[in-house]
Amino acid sequence: xxxxxxxxxxxxxxxxxxxxxxxPIVTGTSVVGLKYKGGVMLAADTLCSYGSMxxxxxxxxxxxxxxxxxIGASGEYSDFQSIMDTLEGHTQxxxxxxxxxxxxxxxxxSYLRAIMYQRRSxxxxxxxxxxxxxxxxxxxxxxxxxxxxxxxxxxxxxSYLAIPILRSKWxxxxxxxxxxxxLEDCLRVLFYRDCRALNRIQIAKVxxxxxxxxxxxxxxxxxWEGAGFESTKGGMEGDGGW
Amino acid sequence: MASLLHPSQTSNPYNLKPGEVSxxxxxxxxxxxxxxxxxxxxxVSTGTYVANRASDKIAQLTENIFCCRSGSAADxxxxxxxxxxxxxxxxxxxxxxxxxxxxxHLMRKICYQNKDNLSAGVIVAGxxxxxxxxxxxxPLGGTCIEMKxxxxxxxxTYIYGLTDALYKxxxxxxxxxxxxxxxxxxxxxxxxxxxGIIRTCVVTEDGVEREYIPGNKLPYGP
Lengths: 242, 222
Hints:
heterodimer, A: alpha+beta, Glutamine Phosphoribosylpyrophosphate, subunit 1, domain 1, eight-stranded antiparallel β-sheet, 5 helices, B: 222 residues, six-stranded antiparallel β-sheet, five-stranded antiparallel β-sheet
C-alpha cells in the first residue's frame, strides 16, 4: 500500500507521527442487503453525519466496483473513499494488464478482509462496516476484519432493527419488486428510529449475468398518521409530555 | 471549520448519563400581536435510538401558559409538574389567573436553585391580560430572559441565522405560525436529535389552538 507524507522529502517519513486508533468524524449509518431470486440487492440512505449534524445529505454510500460487484459502507466516509480508491486502482490494473482477469465479489471480499484485519492489527483501523455483493454472493467485513456471508445482512442500527424484519419476511424466491419493497420497509423503520438516518435512499442490485447498477437517490414515503400521534399529550391532566 | 464543534463535544451537549432519555430537540416560541406561537419537534432520543417519534414537548402550565421542553426528558417533566402545582396554588391564593411573568420566574427559580442537578432548557410562553403575549427563554443554568423570538434545544444552533434573517416585528398570527413551522423544519432537517412531526400551539385572548404537521408534510426537508 502506498503511504503519502506531507512533504516530498523522504527523510520526513521517519518523523511523521505514528497513527493510533482514531474516532470517526463523518459517518454513514446502516447498510442493508439481501439475496433475491435472480440476484443480490443493497440499500442505504444518502446521509453522512458530522456527529449529530446531518451535514451531507447526498453522500453516495453504495458504489460499483468493476462490472459485477457493489459495495455499501457505513462508518467513516473518508476511509470508504480510500478503500474505493484502492479497489478502483485494481480495476484499472485489470484493464491495463488486459489479461482477461476480472475481480468478482468473493475475491474483493477476501481482499478487504485481509486489509481490514491488517489495519486492525496495527491499531489503526479503517473505520467501516462493509457489505459486498455480487453474483450469488453477499458478504460482510467490519473494521476489525470479522467476515461472514448470509442471505441477508445489515450493519449498524440495521442489525437491530432490519434483521428481525428480514428474518420474518425474507424468502429465497423473492422477486425483484418484493426484494425492493422489503429493503424499503427496513430503511423506513430505520428512518423512524435511527437518529442518524435519512429518508432519501439508494438501492443497488447485481442481477444474474448483468452489470451492477446503483439507482439514483429517491425519497421514501413515511407514515405519521398513527392515532396516537395527532393527539396532544401536554395537557393539564398529563405529566406534560410523551 | 473551526466554528463547528467536534463530534465528541456535540454528541452529548446536555451531559446525559448513559441510558438517560433526552429531548434533543428544536423548540421555539414567538409572540405576535394578540398572542404567542409555540412550536416544537417530536423526537425523543436515547443516544442515537429514537425512543418516541411523536412526543409532545409543549406542556401546559395553566389555561393560558405553556412551556416548550428541551434537555433531559425526566428533568423537564418533573419541572413541569412542580411549576404546574405551584401555579395552581398561586392562582388559588391570589384569586386570579397567573401571568406569564410569574410562571416564567417560578420556572427560573427552580432551575436556578437546582442548576447543578438539572439538564433542562425551557421556553415559557403564553398570554395574559396584563402584558398580552410574552415569551421567556430559560436555558441551562436558570437565566430568565424575555425575548421577541426564542429558540432552544440542540436543533436551534442550525437556525440562528435563519431566524435572525426572517424575523420581523409585529407579524400577524398566520405569518408567525408559518415562520415557526419553517424554522423548525429547517432545524429538523439538519439536527440528528430533532425530527418527527411539528407540534404548534397558538395562545391568544380567545383561547388555545393546537396543531400538528405530519413528518411528510413539513415546509422543508427532512
